[in-house]
UniProtKB/TrEMBL annotation:
This is Glycosyl transferase group 1. It holds the Pfam family Glycos_transf_1. InterPro entries: Glyco_trans_1. The keyword Transferase applies. It comes from Terriglobus saanensis (strain ATCC BAA-1853 / DSM 23119 / SP1PR4). Keywords: Glycosyltransferase, Transferase. Residues 238-388 form the Glycosyl transferase family domain. GO terms for molecular function: glycosyltransferase activity. CDD domains: GT4_PimA-like (cd03801). The keyword Lyase does not apply. Transmembrane segments: none annotated. The lineage of its organism: Bacteria, Pseudomonadati, Acidobacteriota, Terriglobia, Terriglobales.
């Protein structure tokens, strides 16, 4: 097994935290290179309440403080620009972007990798944060995680969507990346010794020259809620409207226009709650939100609680990696209606824990919701099955598979994709 791992990520998403935990428990984590870390931030009382909450969220318990290499300035400026920019738009032009934060993180990660380089070092980097690190002349294993499908496949699909739904085109942010950034993505994949992806869907989008280095390591579900409590606030009678929930960034990549149309067709038989922030001004999005219950943001614990007060989760995404929000919904006992492109078809089992439908299928969403609204026994069955699957596909399973993938990737030529 690798003797030490340096991992770099600017934000510390759920999958990143679980990778850190795996490496820490295996006693191989050398350093975690990041931006904002509550462990190193000693001026919380001086910050506005919203900033304090964000800093506290960037806490990494279980990791020795001396192994966390944080530098918060640029990320704090970005957060300030994002918040204040709502009222002073000109601020957004002078504060750092997400891309800026990733580039700086990459340069810092390269520096730490150079200091620790050697045959016993693995550097674990993520899409958009590996180019400078992997370009280093120093010797170390280059492990790359691609959390979403390959960019060319995404562009092809989103360009189709722009033609089909032109009024939603402003929300298709995945088409806005410049050529330099896209070329860096390919170079990162090319320089990687091993590529880890969270789903078969992501692997299927990669060209063969990259896919042959690929290993599928599926993200896990959070701890499943107890069956007795999970169903307390759910609709029990077909005379009551079916409580439908969507959570995610509010753009057309998530298939929102198709969700709004299917809910409109069903009328008073369903009640839709949408949680998320718009990615861009968009008239049909605003019109759709005006007809449903809309919550712009929620702390994670409150989102999980909200899930337990709904009947079904709908996530008609066009293109994903492995939708963490789907895994969270299952863990709260919510059947899920999603697409084959969600990266979750191993846990959303059609007719058992939910429904897997084609992308862009208003009819598919409508039919599934109609069936659950009519048959509450089926709804209860699917809710219980969702909890069972969530218990089987947990984060412990992910951590074990990640460590196994790391062992398999050492000192070996990968000639074909490996599925863990």
């Amino acid at each position: 097994m690798t003797k030490k791992v340096i991992l770099g990520h600017p934000f510390g998403n759920a999958n990143v935290r679980q990778a850190l935990r795996a490496f820490t428990e295996e006693r191989i984590l050398q350093s975690f290179v990041t931006t904002l870390s509550a462990e190193h931030f000693h001026m919380l009382s001086l910050l506005p309440a919203s900033f304090r909450r964000e800093v506290k969220r960037r806490s990494f318990p279980g990791i020795s403080v001396d192994r966390i290499k944080s530098r918060a300035g640029q990320e704090l400026m970005r957060l300030a620009g994002a918040r204040l920019g709502r009222s002073v738009p000109s601020l957004r032009r002078v504060t750092p972007s997400v891309d800026d934060v990733w580039k700086t993180l990459d340069l810092r990660l390269a520096s730490y990798a150079a200091k620790e380089s050697g045959p016993d070092l693995s550097v674990y980097a993520y899409e958009d944060g590996a180019f400078h690190t992997f370009s280093s002349p120093h010797a170390f294993q280059r492990v790359y995680e691609l959390p979403i499908g390959y960019w060319r496949a995404m562009h092809h699909l989103l360009e189709e969507e722009r033609e089909l739904q032109p009024e939603w085109s402003a929300t298709l942010k995945g088409l806005a990346d410049g050529q330099e950034k896209l070329e860096r993505k390919d170079l990162e994949l090319q320089m990687a010794d091993a590529i880890f992806v969270p789903s078969d869907f992501v692997l299927s989008t990669l060209p063969q020259k990259f896919a042959r280095k690929g290993t599928v390591v599926p993200y896990g579900c959070p701890e499943a809620y107890s069956e007795e409590v999970a169903g307390v606030s759910r609709s029990s009678s077909s005379n009551e409207p079916l409580k439908v929930l969507f959570c995610g960034s509010l753009g057309q990549r998530k298939g929102l226009s198709y969700l709004f149309e299917s809910v409109a067709r069903l009328g008073s038989h369903v009640e839709l709650t949408v949680v998320g922030s718009p990615v861009a001004p968009c008239r049909p999005l605003e019109a759709g939100l005006s007809k449903v219950k809309w919550i712009s943001s929620l702390p994670h614990t409150e989102l999980l609680a909200l899930m337990r007060h709904h009947d079904v989760f709908v996530f008609p995404t066009l293109f994903e990696g492995r939708a963490l929000v789907v895994l969270e919904a299952l863990s709260q006992g919510l059947p899920v209606i999603t697409t084959q492109n969600s990266g979750t078809t191993d846990v959303v089992l059609h007719g058992k824990t939910g429904y897997v439908i084609p992308i862009r299928s208003v009819e598919g969403i409508e039919k599934a919701l109609e069936e659950l609204a009519r048959d509450r026994e089926l709804l209860r069955y699917m809710s219980n099955e969702a909890l069972k699957v969530a218990r089987q596909t947990n984060w412990l399973s992910y951590r074990r598979k990640l460590l196994e993938a790391m062992r398999n990737s050492e000192n070996s030529q990968v000639n074909k994709p490996i599925v863990m």
